[in-house]
């Protein structure tokens, strides 16, 4: 990859995960204009479209009952959101390019130990969370592959038991597409399995890569706001030094405001799609959980609980990242007030109210430009979901 900035060890550690994962599906912003990146992205989009088509047809036919239909519907919805994330991050690559190059520049500048410690702390948080999301996403994808393995053919006594019961042999697929493909010949069946393995891989990469990339960029931006707070608090009183330093810090504040706007523009619609899917799945899975509990189907109930918890954790990560950026950017005004402004020159002092007035306006990450992603919104979503399930439970009981 052509390096547009000077990379050091900290830079590689901060973004090498995102570079590798997003490069697979052709949406890494530093390579967005290269032909191979465009080809990879086009292939990923076509694979996702094929997933949506086959699963939508499966959910429509419902030839194997409600459980198969719900499994196809859930994966279909996940594929739609995954495709939305893929398209959004590709179409807004100019904004993510600005964010990534800014991150590289921040690590290339020689900071003192205290400021590097702040940046490293936020980078570690973003890296750990991103890797956790990635590993869990691929583990979830592997579960689809293992569920399709015919263990009854591999284990003799299971195969004998099935032969004695004259059970009907169902074709094995990685996704719920039994009604669409039915029984196929060996070569065609193998090709379908390879396609579905690619579909699962692209789905997991698009979901987890986008989520981890957003979280990592947001954490880095939070670190830069905290460093700016420290710089304002440590500003010197000497008139010439203070004037030059104040001009630099105000320029840095304006730069961070633009970066926060780029972050909002790049991920707002992807977050909206994710939030909409999470809310819909919380309601659908909550209804399925209530039905399973009423039927005393404990295995199905555990499956629905796990999926509900997964949706809540994914939604919480978006809300946590947005809440961190909102609270840290809002603290800037208090940092300016904590500086020795009372010893500044009058001309310099006149600039501080403007910085403080802008500082009290928090930078919010929104879902679709109208729902702020913070812990308050997360609480409201939980309350609304709980109210819906309470009413639904009363309806089921009656």
TrEMBL record:
Q: What is its main location?
A: membrane
Originating organism: Camponotus floridanus
Q: How does it sit in the membrane?
A: Multi-pass membrane protein
Please give the Pfam families that the UniProt record associates with this protein: 7tm_6
InterPro entries given for it?
Answer: 7tm6_olfct_rcpt
Cellular component, GO annotation? plasma membrane
Would you identify the family this protein belongs to, as annotated? Belongs to the insect chemoreceptor superfamily. Heteromeric odorant receptor channel (TC 1.A.69) family.
A Gene Ontology annotation in the biological process aspect, one of them, is: signal transduction
Q: Does the record bear Protein transport in its keywords?
A: no
Transmembrane intervals: 125-151, 171-195, 265-287, 299-321
Ordered alphabetically, the record's keywords are:
Membrane, Olfaction, Receptor, Sensory transduction, Transducer, Transmembrane, Transmembrane helix
User: Localized where?
Assistant: Cell membrane; Membrane
Q: Under which name does UniProt file this protein?
A: Odorant receptor
The molecular function GO annotations come to:
odorant binding; olfactory receptor activity
């Amino acid at each position: 990859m052509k390096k547009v900035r000077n990379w050091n060890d900290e830079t590689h550690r901060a973004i090498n995960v995102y570079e590798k994962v997003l490069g697979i599906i052709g949406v890494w912003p530093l390579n967005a204009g290269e032909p191979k990146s465009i080809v990879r992205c086009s292939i990923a989009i076509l694979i996702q479209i094929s997933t949506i088509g086959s699963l939508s047809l499966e959910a429509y036919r419902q030839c194997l009952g409600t459980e198969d239909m719900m499994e196809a519907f859930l994966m279909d919805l996940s594929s739609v959101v995954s495709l939305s994330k893929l398209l959004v991050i590709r179409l807004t690559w100019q904004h993510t390019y600005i964010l990534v190059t800014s991150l590289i520049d921040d690590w290339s500048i020689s900071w003192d130990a205290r400021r590097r410690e702040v940046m490293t702390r936020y980078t570690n948080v973003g890296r750990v969370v991103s890797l956790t999301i990635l590993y869990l996403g691929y583990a979830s994808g592997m579960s689809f592959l293992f569920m399709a393995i015919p263990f009854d053919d591999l284990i003799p006594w299971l195969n004998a038991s099935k032969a004695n019961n004259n059970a009907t042999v169902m074709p094995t697929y990685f996704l719920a597409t039994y009604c669409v493909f039915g029984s196929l010949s060996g070569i065609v069946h193998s090709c379908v399995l390879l396609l579905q393995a690619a579909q699962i891989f692209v789905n997991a990469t698009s979901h987890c890569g986008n989520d981890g990339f957003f979280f990592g960029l947001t954490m880095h931006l939070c670190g830069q706001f905290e460093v700016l707070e420290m710089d304002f608090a440590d500003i010197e009183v000497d008139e010439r030094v203070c004037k030059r330093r104040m001009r630099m810090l105000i320029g840095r504040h304006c730069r961070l405001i633009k970066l926060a706007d780029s972050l909002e523009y790049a991920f707002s619609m992807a977050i909206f799609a994710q939030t909409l899917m999470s809310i819909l799945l919380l309601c659908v899975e909550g209804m399925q959980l209530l039905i399973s509990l009423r039927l005393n189907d404990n295995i199905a109930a555990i499956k629905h609980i796990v999926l509900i918890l997964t949706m809540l954790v994914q939604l919480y990560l978006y809300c946590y990242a947005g809440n961190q950026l909102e609270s840290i950017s809002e603290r800037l005004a208090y940092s300016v007030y904590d500086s020795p402004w009372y010893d500044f020159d009058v001309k310099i002092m006149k600039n501080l109210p403007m910085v403080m007035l802008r500082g009290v306006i928090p930078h919010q990450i929104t879902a679709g430009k109208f729902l702020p992603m913070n812990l308050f919104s997360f609480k409201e979503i939980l309350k609304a979901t709980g109210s819906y399930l309470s009413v639904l439970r009363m309806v089921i009981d009656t």
